[in-house]
Amino acid sequence: MSLRARLLTLALRLFTKPKLAKMTDPAELREAMERFTRIALRPAPGSVAMPLDLAGRPALSIRAGIPREGAAVVHFHGGVFIAGSPREHLPMLSRLAKLAQVTVIAPSYSLAPEHPFPAALRDAEAAWEALLAQGYRPENLILSGDSAGAALAFALLSKLCVQGTPPAGAFAFSPWFDLTGSSPSVHQNAQSDPMLAGHRLPDAAQFYLQGHPADDPEASPIFAAFPDCPPVLLQTSETEILTDDALRMEEKLRKAGTEVTVQLWPGVPHAWQMMDGLIPEARDALRDAARFVTRVLTAPPQRSDDS
């Protein structure tokens, strides 16, 4: 782990983790995420973010240079379902757009607790349908998400796989796939995680679920089906409380015959890819994601139009 990453994780452990462990007001988390992004992070040089309307909700279309024509990464932001926005994820997503030379489309979605489950997922589904209506083809799109956004992306991925209209691939950064909190790492990594407090996961989930069963596959895609799933990349930290969410999804997908790659990064904090420009591990992880994007978008289609 780099020196900068060591210093960052120390700061997170000393200052951020205690604050998050006590935070009960969604507005406070929203303000903290917005402030951190505004002060500490910058979009990639030469990148452009254009406002976009998807099914009546705002989104961003992000590009840098000359992107691949007709293709895009569709990324759902994290924030525990209660915070975050495409604009706050612009530094990470603009870097990904630049590295992969692909348009990144970042839809917004309704946030809890004002809009509980399944509002966010329905917005994600509507955004996907809007992109198809604009002329995008599933085989030229890649689904992705970070943290809670990964739950939305993979719940949508499951639906598309069941329908027989999957995207070209999917990837997730520090995914939160199991809202029941039953992954062993939630407890085993409670001390080693420099940012997230495992004992607060049930509270965080309930802001979104508001009494709905956490094992609903639409809420927790670890319980969903992924028939004929396209290639998947999962990146997670070895020390975060959600490590096993990624490892359990890897096992599930591999048993179903999916080509899946899991990258375990030592010591870095949850969703470290967001910290591009602060720690070199973020740029390295985004480079790996960009290579995945390039590979699956240039691979032959898995099925013909008639199949």
TrEMBL record:
The active site is at 147. It comes from the Bacteria. Residues 73-273 form the Alpha/beta hydrolase fold-3 domain. It holds the Pfam family Abhydrolase_3. PROSITE patterns: LIPASE_GDXG_SER (PS01174). GO terms for molecular function: hydrolase activity. Keywords: Hydrolase. The keyword Hydrolase applies. The keyword Hydrolase applies. Belongs to the 'GDXG' lipolytic enzyme family. This is Acetyl esterase/lipase. The lineage of its organism: Bacteria, Pseudomonadati, Pseudomonadota, Alphaproteobacteria, Rhodobacterales.
